[in-house]
């Protein structure tokens, strides 16, 4: 199974929605509204970039709603992010800018600190994932991904469709077009040795999930290795999401 490089340039979803001013009660209500609007925008962008569901118009509308809910002092930042991500929203096959990716990670990290969401720390080593329990609760998760290995690593999260019985090893023997009738991508990220990133997982549906690294063995620095993909060396971790 070859992997299409899903670059998370959900800059449109990189919405820095800090709490609004006012009394504590008002701030809490405004913050909850900002979080809800941001999660909706994040979902819309990921659905478009990962699964082709939705369209640029609906995604832009979700971003505008998040801007509307945001604190006025960061409104211009959100407007700038909307502009920075516009090209990829219009053309999901294009790559997002480094600025967009950085802002996305910062925003997801903010959600972990300020919204009522689950958080998780996942560590990549050569060749495996650490920190993922056997079962996670359903709902929106903020995941910090750290690479403590010597090679590049990615974390591609997916859900096995309800009628899928094959293992990942069995799926790896199938053509890409057939594989993606049996799994649903959730999100993905990448980090160099010593690096880290923050990403969101909306685990809305209970069931069987996994994270996988498709990067080939020997990928160090700017050089892509010519070995087998890391998942063939055991860099895969399955888990379930509770109902």
Radius of gyration: 18 Å
Q: How much helical structure, as a percent, in the residues?
A: 25-40%
Taking strands numbered 1, 2, ... along the chain, how are they ordered across the largest sheet?
3-9-8-5-6
Biggest sheet character: 5 strands, mixed
Provide mean pLDDT, rounded: 83
> What's the assembly state of these chains?
single chain
Count of helical segments? 6
- Strand-pairing-aware structural class: alpha+beta
Order of helices and strands: HHHHEEEEEHHEEEE
Tell me the distance between the termini: 29 Å
What is the number of beta strands? Answer: 9
Spans with pLDDT under 50 lasting ≥5 residues? 1-28
Shape: globular
Beta-strand percentage? Answer: 15-25%
Put the structure in a nutshell:
The protein has helices spanning 24-51, 56-69, 75-90, 98-114, 168-171, 176-179, and strands at residues 118-125, 128-130, 135-136, 139-147, 153-160, 183-191, 196-203, 207-212, 236-241. It has 243 residues and is of the alpha+beta class.
Structure in words:
With 243 residues, the protein is an alpha+beta fold. The protein has helices at residues 24-51, 56-69, 75-90, 98-114, 168-171, 176-179; strands at 118-125, 128-130, 135-136, 139-147, 153-160, 183-191, 196-203, 207-212, 236-241. It has a five-stranded mixed beta sheet. It has a four-stranded mixed beta sheet with strand order 2-1-4-7, covered by helices on one side. Helix 1 (24-51) runs antiparallel to helix 2 (56-69) and helix 2 runs antiparallel to helix 3. The longest helix has 28 residues, at 24-51. The chain starts with 23 loop residues before the first helix and ends with a strand. 37% of the residues are buried. Residues 1-28 have low confidence and may be disordered.
């Amino acid at each position: 199974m070859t992997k299409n490089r899903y670059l998370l340039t959900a800059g449109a979803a990189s919405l820095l929605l800090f709490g609004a001013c006012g009394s504590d009660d008002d701030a809490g209500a405004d913050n909850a509204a900002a979080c809800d609007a941001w999660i909706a925008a994040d979902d819309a962008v990921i659905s478009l970039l990962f699964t082709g569901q939705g369209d640029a118009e609906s995604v832009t509308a979700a971003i505008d709603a998040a801007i509307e809910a945001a604190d006025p002092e960061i409104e211009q930042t959100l407007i700038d992010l909307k502009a920075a991500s516009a090209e990829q929203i219009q053309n999901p096959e294009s790559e997002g800018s480094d600025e967009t990716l950085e802002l996305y990670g910062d925003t997801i990290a903010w959600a972990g600190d300020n919204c009522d969401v689950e958080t998780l720390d996942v560590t990549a080593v050569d060749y495996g994932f650490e920190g993922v329990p056997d079962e996670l609760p359903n709902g929106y998760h903020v995941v910090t991904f750290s690479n403590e290995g010597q090679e590049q690593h990615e974390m591609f999260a997916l859900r096995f469709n309800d009628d899928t019985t094959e293992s990942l090893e069995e799926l790896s023997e199938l053509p890409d077009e057939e594989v993606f009738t049996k799994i649903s991508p959730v999100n993905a990220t990448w980090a160099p040795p010593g690096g880290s990133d923050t990403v969101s997982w909306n685990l809305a549906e209970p069931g069987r999930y996994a994270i996988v690294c498709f990067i080939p063995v020997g990928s160090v620095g700017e050089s892509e290795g010519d070995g087998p993909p890391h998942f063939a060396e055991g860099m895969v971790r399955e888990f379930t999401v509770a109902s």
